[in-house]
Amino acid sequence: MPPRNLEKCVYVTEADQKDELEAVIEQNQPAKQPPTKIVWRNVIWMIYLHIAALYGVYLMYYCKWQSWIWFAVTYGMSGLGITAGAHRLWAHRSYKAKLPLRIVLAIWNTMAFQNDVIEWSRDHRVHHKYSETDADPHNANRGFFFSHVGWLLVRKHPEVRAKGKRVNIDDLLADPVLVFQRKVYLPAMIFTCFFFPSLVAWYFWGESWWTAFFTVGILRYTLVLNATWAVNSVAHMFGNKPYDREISPVETLSVAVAALGEGYHNYHHTFPQDYSASEFGWGRNCTTAFIDFCAWIGQAYGMKKISPEMIKRRMERTGDGSTGFGYTNPPKKLD
């Protein structure tokens, strides 16, 4: 594993905390909620998907050992397409990437099948700016099921649409990689998410096409999907708040493991500019390890980092007194 490349990081100042993506949450006035409109197409798709994934779990017992390894590899690829790509690079601009890395991340993001990067990042910016209000696409105040998957089964709240139009995404629309991804998204997604992983297993080591499709295709996709959803649900409800006790997001170790380092959510919502999305380096954060590796080979640069001193001051000022998965007194150098 390469060194953390801390000398390449750009430390964020307290003034930077007031910059892009950080805004005062608008408090909604009490109002009559619009009727919930169920999107039955999505309901049927999600029911089928999870039944098919359970069948994939059964078929995993009959997979060849190469398919188990390929399953883990494709899980990591599609997961990083969300965490290192859509989330940390494009939604938060917490680091910069050269063209080859942007292309790779866009392909892996397409494999994850969670909408194109422009739409995903726009919704995520709305989520941060209007967290836990009606404008939040997966408002945790509407319950665990809604914040996990229910928000995809109903029409968006009018406030989500209204506030989404006001979020600046000019930087996303100016990236030719993202514009091209959006243009070819549907056929590219079908191929990279479901057929490419299955074809590799079938062609290179003779895995049954049926088994490959339901394991490295359907099951892998469903698990990545639920790991991402868990950041919106579990990591907004079950855990502690070492950095800001007044916000909903919490520190959740299980989500951090499943979502490749995205479960340190109280930290992330307190310091959204940090490229690590946590107080930890690659020792406990797979996505940070990947970004650091990319920096080591010259593909990532300009990583933004919060200083240990600022972290400590914030914990003392607004934390709930717990240590979470971090430190009461952050070390001089984060591992």
Explain what you see:
This protein is mainly alpha-helical and 335 residues long. It has one domain (6-23, 37-318). It has 14 helices and four strands. It has helices at 40-59, 65-91, 99-112, 117-129, 144-148, 158-164, 170-173, 176-183, 185-205, 209-232, 253-258, 265-270, 286-296, 308-318, and strands at residues 9-12, 96-97, 300-301, 303-306. The protein has a two-stranded parallel sheet. Strands 2-3 form a two-stranded antiparallel sheet. Helix 2 (65-91) packs across helix 4, helix 2 packs parallel to helix 10 (209-232) and helix 3 (99-112) packs across helix 9. The two termini are 13 Å apart.
Describe the secondary-structure layout.
Blueprint: E1 9-12, H1 40-59, H2 65-91, E2 96-97, H3 99-112, H4 117-129, H5 144-148, H6 158-164, H7 170-173, H8 176-183, H9 185-205, H10 209-232, H11 253-258, H12 265-270, H13 286-296, E3 300-301, E4 303-306, H14 308-318
Parallel strand pairs: 1-4
Antiparallel strand pairs: 2-3
Helix pairs in contact: 1-10, 2-3, 2-4, 2-9, 2-10, 3-9, 9-10
Summarize this entry quickly.
Helix content is 53%, strand content 4%. The protein is mostly helical and 335 residues long. The strands form 2 sheets. Strands 1-4 form a two-stranded parallel ribbon. It has a two-stranded antiparallel sheet with strand order 2-3.
